[in-house]
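Budget justification aside, the reviewers requested a transparent look at the raw inputs and outputs of the sequence design task funded under Objective 1. We therefore reproduce one unedited record. The lines immediately below are the C-alpha cells for a 317-residue chain.
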C-alpha cells in the first residue's frame, strides 16, 4: 500500500480487525493504517511501559482519540489467557465477526544470559510469544467461521510483528530475541493450519522510531550509528505495508517474513540447508569432520553480526 492509498478510503472497507499493543508505536501506526483503509479496529492494550511493569490509562485514551470512531480500545493484558479469549470474543461479537488479526504487543527486559532474572524471561515470553498464541487460538475460529459462511469471503489475514533480533541476535536480548524467533515459527504454522480457510499469515520485522529504538544501549560504534539512524524512521511505513498484507491484493502471500525500514521493503530468506555432506562408510570421524569444515561447510557458516550491526547503513526515508 503506497502513501497514495491513504487518500483512498475503502481498500479495507467492511473488514474487522484486532490489533494487540495498538495504542503506541508500531501498533498504533498499523491501527491507523487499517482505519484509514476503512476497517473497523479493536485494540487490545493495557498502556504498559516498555518493560511491562507499569500501566498508564492516558495512553489508551490518547490512542482512542487518535483512531477516532472507527476503532475501540480495550484495556487488556494480553499475557492473561482468559482475558484475551473474552476480549477476542467480545470484539468479534461487537463487530459482527473478525477478518484481521495483528499480533504486535511486546515488552522488553534485557540482560546478559548470566544476569537475566528468570522472572523477566517469563514475562517477555508471556507477552511477546504466548500472548500471540492466546490471541490466535481465540481468533482463528472466528476467521474460519467467516470463510465458511460466505464462499465469496475475502479470507482472513494474520500479521505477526517480529524483530530482526530474533534472526540475527543481539547482546543481552535472550528473552526478546527468543520470543520473536518463536513468533516467526508460529507464523509459519498459522500459514499452514489456516490455509484451507484461505487465511494468510505473514510476519514483519519493523524498523522505526519507537520506545524499543529509544531503549537501545549501543555496545559499539556500529550500534550507536544504527540507533541514531533508526530514530529518524517513521513507523507509518510499517503501518501501510501491514495494511496492504491485509488487503485482497495480498491473498496469495502467506508464510513470509518481511522487513520494513522507512521506504525500504525487505523480503527475508528463511532457514533452509546451506550445505550438505554425507558421512563416509562407518560414520563421521574427527579427521573427516576436520576436512569437511576446512572446505564447503566452513565457507557456508553464518557470521555472528548482530541485527544492529547488519542494518547500520543509512535507511531510505
Amino acid at each position: 500500500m503506497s502513501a497514495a492509498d491513504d487518500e483512498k478510503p475503502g481498500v479495507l472497507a467492511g473488514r474487522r480487525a484486532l490489533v494487540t499493543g495498538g495504542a503506541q508505536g508500531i501498533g498504533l501506526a498499523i491501527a491507523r493504517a487499517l482505519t484509514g483503509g476503512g476497517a473497523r479496529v479493536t485494540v487490545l492494550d493495557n498502556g504498559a511501559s516498555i518493560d511491562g511493569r507499569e500501566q498508564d490509562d492516558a495512553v489508551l485514551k490518547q490512542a482512542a482519540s487518535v483512531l477516532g470512531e472507527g476503532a475501540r480500545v480495550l484495556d487488556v493484558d494480553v499475557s492473561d489467557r482468559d482475558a484475551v479469549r473474552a476480549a477476542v470474543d467480545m470484539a468479534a461479537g461487537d463487530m459482527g465477526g473478525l477478518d484481521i488479526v495483528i499480533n504486535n504487543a511486546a515488552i522488553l527486559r534485557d540482560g546478559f544470559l548470566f544476569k537475566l532474572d528468570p522472572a523477566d524471561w517469563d514475562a517477555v515470553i508471556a507477552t511477546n510469544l504466548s500472548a500471540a498464541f492466546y490471541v490466535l487460538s481465540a481468533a482463528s475460529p472466528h476467521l474460519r467461521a467467516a470463510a465458511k459462511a460466505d464462499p465469496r469471503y475475502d479470507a482472513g489475514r494474520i500479521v505477526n510483528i517480529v524483530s530482526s533480533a530474533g534472526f540475527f541476535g543481539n547482546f543481552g536480548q535472550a528473552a526478546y530475541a527468543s520470543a520473536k524467533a518463536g513468533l516467526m515459527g508460529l507464523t509459519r504454522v498459522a500459514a499452514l493450519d489456516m490455509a484451507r480457510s484461505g487465511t494468510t499469515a505473514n510476519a514483519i520485522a519493523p524498523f522505526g522510531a519507537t520506545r524499543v529504538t529509544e531503549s537501545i544501549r549501543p555496545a559499539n560504534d556500529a550500534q550507536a550509528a544504527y540507533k541514531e539512524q533508526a530514530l529518524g524512521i517513521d513507523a507509518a511505513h510499517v503501518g501501510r505495508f501491514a495494511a496492504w498484507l491485509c488487503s485482497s491484493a495480498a491473498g496469495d502471500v502467506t508464510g513470509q517474513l518481511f522487513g520494513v525500514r522507512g521506504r525500504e521493503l525487505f523480503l527475508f530468506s528463511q532457514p533452509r540447508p546451506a550445505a550438505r555432506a554425507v558421512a563416509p562408510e562407518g560414520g563421521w570421524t574427527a579427521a573427516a569432520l576436520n576436512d569437511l569444515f576446512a572446505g564447503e561447510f566452513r565457507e557456508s557458516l553464518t557470521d555472528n553480526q548482530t541485527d544492529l550491526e547488519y542494518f547500520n547503513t543509512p535507511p531510505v526515508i
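Confidence is low (pLDDT under 50) at residues 1-7. The chain has one domain: 3-270. Computational costs for records of this kind are itemized in the attached budget.
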